[in-house]
Amino acid sequence: TQYVYRFGGGVSDGGKGDKNLLGGKGANLAEMASIGLPVPPGFTISTEMCQRFYDEGERFPESLKAEVANGIAHIEAITNKKFGVAADPLLVSVRSGARASMPGMMDTVLNLGLNDETVQGLARVSGDARFAWDSYRRFIQMYSDVVLELDHGAFEEALEIAKEDKGYSLDTEMGAEDWEALVKRYQAIVVEQWDKPFPQDVHEQLWGAIGAVFKSWQSERAKVYRRLNDIPGEWGTAVNVQAMVFGNMGDTSATGVAFTRDPSKGDRAYYGEFLINAQGEDVVAGIRTPQYLTREAREAAGAKPASMEEALPTVYGELAKVFDLLETHYRDMQDIEFTVQQGKLWMLQTRSGKRTAKAALKIAVDMANEGLITREEAIARVDPAALDQLLHPTLDPKAPRDVIAKGLPASPGAASGLVVFDAETAEKRAEMGDAVILVRVETSPEDIHGMHAARGILTARGGMTSHAAVVARGMGRPCVSGVGTLAIDAKAKVFRVAGREVREGDVITIDGATGEVMLGAVPTVQPELAGDFGILMGWADEVRRLKVRANAETPLDCKTARIFGAEGVGLCRTEHMFFDSNRITAVRQMILAEDEKGRRVALDKLLPEQRADFSEIFEIMAGLPVTIRLLDPPLHEFLPHEEEEFAEVASATGIGVEALKRRAAELHEFNPMLGHRGCRLGVTYPEIYEMQARAIFEAACDVAAKSGNAPIPEVMVPLVATRRELELMKAVIDKAAKAVFAEKGVTLDYLVGTMIELPRAALKAGEIAEVGEFFSFGTNDLTQTTLGVSRDDAGRFLTTYVDKGIYPKDPFVSLDVEGVGELIELAAERGRKTRGDIKLGICGEHGGDPASIAFCEGIGLDYVSASPYRVPIARLAAAQAAL
Ligand code: ADP
Ligand code: MG
Ligand code: MG
Questions:
Q1: CATH number of the 254-354 domain
Q2: How far is the CA of 39 from the centre of ligand 2 (A)?
Q3: Using DSSP, how many helices (H) and how many strands (E) does the chain show?
Q4: pTM of the full predicted structure?
Q5: Is 871 helix (H, G, I), strand (E, B) or coil?
Q6: Domain 4-243 CATH class label
Q7: Which of 337, 345, 347 to mutate to test the pocket of ligand 1 (most atoms within 8 A of CB)?
């Protein structure tokens, strides 16, 4: 097998189609080189080597040596420089790069090839000793951190001391001798910490760096990132070795990052940041505040330092041409890294840019309208899950705001929460159910778990492309970055700004769309659903086949669901209505009653309440199907616990407290989820289902009479395992319907069906369909019962299961297509065989999960049902599945 692929100097062994093999970075470097863009020459060691490296105990096969030597020779031939030779030394970067971009999660080493001799050569050839020693100290620092894994604090401290000694405040004041002296100090630190001198052999350096980059695939932060982003561990990273170009060679040199469109709002404008006389890492690390790319952006921000367009107009012009070329070539918004070495432009990376949901929508709609992509492609471009960001409230523009600071609008959306100063606390408080805002000087990859746990992120340093900004946008968390006026004392857990003091636990609000930071919680308003969102959803609705319904049981949920485009209710859980504080006593009275007569007394109290519930829902869902599930949870869950709860029931029933307690003890269950619940309640106490059915039909008749637009009730019997259970329950429901219709003098259409949530029901679906007119796959319980895993207790081991690849994803979040999916497919098939027009749908969490929705499309279900806020996600996912 070939493991090394070259690029540059008219050669490209790979291209943009080779992402799996070469990683995104390597594939795109090869592609850019092949379309004639200026790319420093280099080579990529493939992801296959990463797999082999781990398979063989973190060692390289002997054969790789020659391949890498050939790769180096390729770079030497094009650059006319020699690796490790002082006269004119070749320096390289060793860069990670996986299939999917994992910004900042893995390691990169720059300026490799410098040692005590080549640094002299570099100084001579460049005529710039300061630059040479600056590059050397950067290299030692990075190599010590990434490859030798030494404590980087010691290096930062040494630099601070060196500057203090000289009375400098900026790195730029350091001269050649200062950097040289610092290099000596750095080398001493290496000996102190590592017991060996800093490696002088450039080949040792190279292999050290290659190994370290492969190893960074398994670093803790990379693993966390993969878990959060569903990136499989087997993919591995590639390693790119590439000739260095230098943005730190004076005032005609620079380095920057750019997007071909605004990644935050989606506007068609070049967008980016750059720094004169700096190396790549400086822009993202937030060490110096970067400058704007275009004059327009600089003026809009009211900033002083010249934009690239103004400071380096010729190269800027070239860069703008490259942007257009790349966008047309890739037919997508690109995220680009570039460096200017003494007036010459070099491209170092391009990839499809991460963007906010808002920008994703706008860019997709715009590009389709520009004719760059088709409408189908536009639909496919938007990640349904990301829509979540848009569907949540933003700050009420009319609400008063106590603005205490302003920073950069780094990631849109608004969030209020308690201030915390570190990732661990963020995670802990979030687990306790608190909304938190993570406040940091700047974030680093170690903070991602805390960023994920937080509702929003606020930083004192860093630009629009800083780590905090990029990661927050990717996660859909609002972020305000670079609030220079924030004085953060993380140890004392306090920040001061504008004469105010904010401590850990105080509430603040951030607005990622304006950059404002406010004291206290600011009220919010509903999102804007017209514009690009409406247009793209319209296109999606044209291509989708699956209907989308909502799981909703309150009038508010039903209204929200309709606004989001729900085409009916797929699951109305009636027990939520039972828990209502006004009714719970009557519910308890019913449960604790000694006999049917006692139960009927309590049920009579509940009937008008239930009828009112259903009337409201039917009015909102007029003309649409509404699936109502009859009482499902174990009676156990409704039992009184507190003394006063027993007393209330006692006074309502006239039964003594002691007798009630005895009855409650009788009802106690060891395994309530497999106990007296679902249709077992209806089988043992038919009067409960009878009351519910009556309430449904009375409400339906009332609404039909009032509005002339009858709802279509679908009465659903839960937890059926056998045909006979459903037959008994259907008789109860039909009898209630007949009675109500007779009383009201009308007849309405309705269906009686069942949830398929037990493996036996799935297997016997053919028989059950003789009675049931529809099936709704209750995949929460069907997953529990098929896997034999309790959803409420799975947290303890499921993450380990996912880490070890036993399940690809949490099966309660994304359907276990192989196992549970097979049961669903089989049940659908057997059900259809009996009853050709049987209605099939899915409710449960999976109804809002794009991967699960694709499965539902594949087996031809009629609809999916999701929680109201996930309805638009389901509509888009259903469209993508149909493409
Ligand atoms: P990441 O994936 O974290 O962005 P990169 O491999 O892209 O890591 O490199 C980090 C920084 O170093 C980037 O700003 C990149 O542009 C810069 N860089 C990488 N290789 C070179 C090179 N050969 N010459 C100059 N700068 C480089
Ligand atoms: Mg990069
Ligand atoms: Mg269930």
A1: 3.30.470.20
A2: 14
A3: 36, 34
A4: 0.78
A5: helix
A6: alpha beta
A7: 337
